[in-house]
């Protein structure tokens, strides 16, 4: 063997050794707790819920699952537990569609939860890629197949996080490393599972959620350059397909699980924007409810709630950061309504809340500050 | 299939290399056919619906090439054959790449409602240009007759097929014909492996690493002054490391097959003028545009005015080659304008006194870099409105966020800038000499120090560890 050939062998062996060392480090620290709950190293969590959920499903003890979008992302598991008397796991993912949600929920079903609390809205049922073409969701990590585990163990970013977590576990280095862990450079900055994607406790709620912000968002939505986005995702056929495939399909697959589904309380401004700038979109939204509610409400393991016509919330714009996202105070209200069974859709009159909503939207007159 | 994927690195490349050299023991033609077939497989993995188009394009151009080279046609018939060939190529490119853009503009102008929804075949801009050059050279009488397998491999050769470098038949086909390239040369494989590793590292660690910062300017939120600059600079470096990383990987893997590809980058952000920048950035495209567009248009042979007109035309079409959108046209126009100003300054501007040469060079370097960054804003933006909005934020220092995140991002940008400005480039590190077919002179024999070898091993390892799901190269969409 000549020198160059020997050098090729050396180079490849040295590379393999480095890759193997990184994989071993990730396996030992296991930032996502895919292989075992954290024992030797501190448990740390990432706000990237599409990735983090794969680990939470494995590592956490739970008998109820909370699923949703950014409208449900700030819920605290401890609040859900207290209000509903369950041991919950929050799997909400910002901007998630029904395909992603259904896939993640289906993965969680392997742990046999008794109850699913599912925050829905029209938008999640729009056209979405298959989970294997979804660039944001590491589907194989949920499946725990060879490809998923290889991606996890051979990820340099995960090895870096592992090293960081390992360093943090040394008493002498812990405080310094903790100070440097800010979420900008390291992706596992959260120490308490209850804090994942919740608002910081010192958040100024009045500054974050108020009428001025809601109206600013409303005006921005109606700007000529953005009006087109109002109708984005509102394709009735696609929405119906999504509902059948991702929601009804999953619910029927798991008859032993109780599904508490609620449609989130958008501010009335969202519907008013559609009313004034895109009536066809508003009609699609109503048509979708007309299709979806009777079908969901009649399923024996579903309790369906509609909070979109809860006027004292949706018309009080101080509850909102924009036209959609409500404050943590409303999170707590939602939990109390779910506990009380309030605003539940009657399977015998599944469109009653929709009629209320239509009347409210029709009657609403803008009073901008 | 992506170069930065486990399937490519651990399965496809080793199998194709092994098959190539095994067949090379028995025949000089079989490895060429093997490599062409492997290239088609490589293309078909993620673009199977366009394989027929690629094959049809090869057959069409080979036939036209045959008429121009081998058939004894009269002059007028030769010109007609060339016209048909080039027009055919441009027509296909026009349909697949520009029909939607044309329809959208027509709709805007005439309030019509044409809907054109055609998928862009990956690599079509590259293999069309490569073959147009072949036809033009064949017409000029500069091409010997090539065998079909060699020609097919020249077009499909997988290291360059998707995003270049734009190859020249005179450079490549003789290499495919050489018998020596079919036998493994450990030195070339070692050097190729190291160059491939550097490219992979550039892509997966540097380009993909800085990619999230781009959304600071081009994300859903309106940026502040500092966020707009962070996003624009992040894209500036992302694009460079992404595309030059791809080119390094192409050069490196090709070297393993004993084939030297032309250089595509030469530290472009070290340029001290726009003319200098275009000699360093996407060099094979610059050479193509110069040889097959700028010079045929008249180049600088008919006075200053026509020269500037030709420059602008070339750069406008160069912009449009990148994508069917007005943002690319503006990007091309900006660079055309920069080049005109640069040439005018060289011709009519004052000469710098020797004692001011250094500060003048620094000023020229800064001015060039800023000009390039501003133009990249158009290149990256989804629309003219977005580009203008980002630029307006970059010009408004009264609105600054400067939080903990922005400071951390600024440090990232500084590190990337330091690498782009001060680190030696791949060919300097590896002594890659495309013209003389030499590489790694200093690494030969006992000259390769263990430290260098293990540093290269670490670069390869980090490159592999940096691989992410679904991380395409930016130039795949051009």
Structure description:
- The complex is a heterodimer of chains A (369) and B (478).
- Chain A is α/β, with parallel strands linked by helices and 369 residues long.
- In chain A, 49% of the residues lie in helices and 7% in strands.
- Chain A is built from 16 helices and five strands.
- Chain A has helices at 3-29, 49-59, 77-84, 98-108, 139-143, 146-153, 156-168, 174-180, 205-208, 211-222, 236-253, 268-277, 279-297, 311-314, 328-340, 352-363; strands at residues 64-67, 88-90, 115-120, 258-263, 302-306.
- Chain A has a five-stranded parallel β-sheet with strand order 2-1-3-4-5, with helices on both faces.
- In chain A, helix 3 links the parallel strand 1 (64-67) and strand 2 (88-90).
- In chain A, helix 4 (98-108) packs parallel to helix 11 and helix 10 packs parallel to helix 12 (268-277).
- Chain A starts with a helix and ends in a 6-residue tail after the last helix.
- The mean pLDDT of chain A is 91.
- With 478 residues, chain B is mainly alpha-helical.
- Chain B is globular.
- Chain B has helices spanning 6-24, 30-47, 51-69, 75-110, 124-140, 148-156, 158-161, 169-177, 186-218, 225-256, 274-280, 283-297, 304-322, 326-348, 357-380, 384-394, 404-422, 426-430, 450-465.
- The A-B interface holds A 2-5, 7-8, 10-16, 18-19, 22, 135, 138, 150-151, 154-157, 159, 182, 184-185, 225 and B 6, 186-187, 189-190, 193-194, 197, 204-205, 385, 404-405, 408-409, 444-446, 448, 453-454, 456-458, 460-462, 464-470.
Please count the beta strands of chain B (DSSP E, at least 2 residues each).
0
Please give the count of helices of chain A: 16
The average pLDDT score of chain B comes to: 90
**Helix and strand pattern of chain A:** HHEHEHEHHHHHHHEHHEHHH
Helix content of chain A: 40-55%
Structural class of chain A: alpha/beta
**What is the global morphology of chain B?**
globular
Whole-angstrom Rg of chain A: 23 Å
Oligomer: heterodimer
Largest sheet of chain A: 5 strands, parallel
For the secondary structure, the number of strands of chain A is 5
The N- to C-terminal Cα distance of chain A equals 82 Å
Order of helices and strands of chain B: HHHHHHHHHHHHHHHHHHH
Name the beta content range of chain A.
Answer: 5-15%
C-alpha Rg of chain B (nearest Å): 23 Å
| Morphology of chain A | elongated
């Amino acid at each position: 063997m000549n020198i160059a050939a020997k050098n090729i062998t050396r180079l490849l062996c040295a590379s393999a050794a480095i890759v193997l060392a990184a994989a071993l480090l990730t396996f030992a620290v296991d930032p996502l707790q895919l292989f075992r709950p954290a024992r030797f190293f501190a448990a740390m969590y990432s706000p990237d819920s599409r990735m983090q959920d794969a680990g939470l499903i494995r590592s956490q003890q739970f008998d109820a699952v909370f699923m949703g979008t950014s409208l449900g992302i700030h819920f605290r598991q401890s609040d859900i537990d207290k209000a509903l008397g369950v041991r919950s796991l929050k799997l909400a993912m910002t901007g998630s569609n029904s395909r992603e949600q259904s896939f993640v929920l289906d993965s969680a079903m392997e742990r046999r939860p008794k109850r699913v609390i599912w925050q829905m809205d029209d938008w999640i049922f729009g056209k979405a890629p298959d989970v294997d073409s979804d660039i944001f969701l590491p589907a194989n990590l949920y499946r725990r197949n060879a490809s998923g585990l290889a991606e996890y163990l051979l990820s340099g970013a995960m090895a870096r996080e592992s090293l960081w977590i390992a360093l943090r576990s040394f008493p002498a280095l812990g405080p310094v490393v903790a100070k440097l862990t800010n979420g900008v450079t390291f992706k596992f900055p959260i120490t308490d599972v209850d804090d994942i994607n919740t608002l910081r406790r010192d958040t100024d709620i009045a500054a974050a959620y108020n009428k001025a912000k809601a109206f600013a968002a409303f005006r921005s939505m109606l700007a000529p350059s953005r009006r087109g986005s109002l109708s984005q995702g509102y394709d009735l056929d696609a929405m119906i397909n999504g509902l059948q495939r991702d929601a009804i399909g999953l619910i029927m697959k798991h008859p032993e699980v109780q599904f508490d589904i609620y449609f989130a309380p958008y501010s009335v401004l969202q519907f008013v924007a559609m009313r004034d700038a895109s009536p066809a979109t508003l009609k699609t939204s109503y048509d979708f409810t007309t299709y979806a509610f009777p079908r969901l409400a009649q399923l024996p393991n579903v309790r369906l709630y509609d909070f979109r016509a809860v006027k004292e919330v949706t018309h009080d714009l101080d509850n909102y950061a924009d036209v959609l996202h409500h404050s943590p105070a409303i999170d707590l209200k939602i939990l109390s309504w779910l506990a009380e069974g309030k605003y539940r859709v009657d399977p015998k009159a599944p469109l009653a809340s929709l009629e209320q909503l239509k009347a409210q939207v029709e009657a609403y007159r803008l009073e901008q500050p | 299939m992506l170069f930065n994927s486990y399937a490519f690195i651990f399965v496809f490349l080793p199998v194709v290399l092994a098959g190539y050299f095994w067949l090379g023991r028995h025949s000089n033609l079989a490895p060429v056919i093997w490599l062409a077939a492997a290239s088609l497989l490589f293309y078909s993995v993620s673009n199977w619906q366009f394989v027929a188009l690629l094959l049809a394009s090869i057959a069409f151009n080979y036939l036209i090439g045959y008429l121009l080279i081998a058939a004894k046609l009269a002059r007028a018939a030769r010109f007609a054959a060339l016209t048909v060939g080039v027009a055919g190529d441009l027509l296909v490119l026009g349909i697949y790449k520009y029909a939607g853009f044309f329809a959208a503009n027509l709709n805007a102008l005439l309030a019509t409602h044409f809907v054109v929804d055609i998928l862009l075949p990956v690599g079509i801009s590259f293999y069309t240009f490569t073959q147009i050059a072949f036809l033009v050279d064949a017409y000029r009488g500069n091409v010997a007759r090539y065998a079909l397998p060699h020609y097919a491999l020249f077009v499909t050769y997988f290291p360059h097929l998707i995003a270049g470098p734009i190859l020249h038949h005179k450079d490549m086909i003789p290499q495919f014909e050489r018998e020596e390239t079919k036998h493994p040369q450990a030195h070339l494989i070692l050097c190729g492996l190291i160059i491939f590793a550097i490219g992979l590292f550039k892509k997966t660690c540097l380009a993909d690493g800085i990619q999230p910062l781009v959304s600071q300017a081009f994300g859903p939120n309106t940026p502040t002054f500092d966020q707009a600059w962070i996003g624009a600079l992040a894209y500036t470096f992302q694009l460079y490391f992404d595309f030059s990383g791809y080119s390094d990987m192409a050069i490196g893997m090709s070297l393993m097959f004993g084939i030297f590809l032309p250089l595509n980058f030469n530290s472009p952000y070290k340029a001290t003028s726009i003319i200098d920048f275009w000699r360093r950035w996407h060099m094979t495209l610059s050479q193509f545009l110069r040889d097959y567009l700028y010079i045929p248009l008249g180049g600088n042979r008919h006075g200053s005015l026509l020269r500037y007109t030709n420059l602008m035309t070339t750069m406008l079409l160069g912009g449009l080659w990148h994508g069917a959108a007005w943002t690319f046209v503006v990007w091309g126009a900006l660079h055309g304008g920069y080049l005109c100003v640069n040439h005018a300054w060289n011709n009519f501007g004052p000469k710098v006194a020797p004692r001011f040469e250094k500060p003048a060079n620094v000023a020229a370097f800064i001015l060039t870099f800023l000009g390039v960054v501003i133009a990249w804003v158009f290149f990256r933006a989804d629309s003219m409105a977005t580009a203008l909005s980002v630029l307006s934020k970059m010009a408004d220092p009264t609105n600054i966020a400067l939080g903990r995140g922005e400071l951390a991002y600024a440090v990232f940008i500084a590190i990337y800038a330091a690498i782009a400005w001060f680190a030696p480039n791949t060919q300097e590190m590896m002594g890659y000499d495309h013209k003389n077919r030499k590489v790694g002179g200093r690494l030969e024999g006992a000259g390769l120090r263990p430290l260098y070898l293990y540093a290269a091993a670490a670069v390869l390892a980090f490159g592999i560890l940096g691989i992410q799901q679904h991380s395409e190269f930016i130039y795949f969409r051009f």
